[in-house]
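Here's a chain:
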Amino acid sequence: MIKEKDIQVSVKEAYNNAASLLDSGNYELAEKQLAEILQNHPNEPNSLRLSGVSSIVQGKPEIALIPLQKAIKIAPSFAQAHEDLATAWFFCLMH
């Protein structure tokens, strides 16, 4: 039987893997990892934020708005998500 603690650990491991892939510039695999997390845990704010960051660094800030706004709706005090949303809006306005 899978326990809640085990699920949290596996989500954390998957998130860390996605973050490492994103840091190394492997955007496609990072996005696949994040999509898998969000398919099973659609309200996971850290993964939503990282999905938005992935879109920003790939020059697609308009796509970043949706997951970042959702992350903030789920976790209103998530300061990094607010900062990333501001960055996404800045780049949207610059286009």
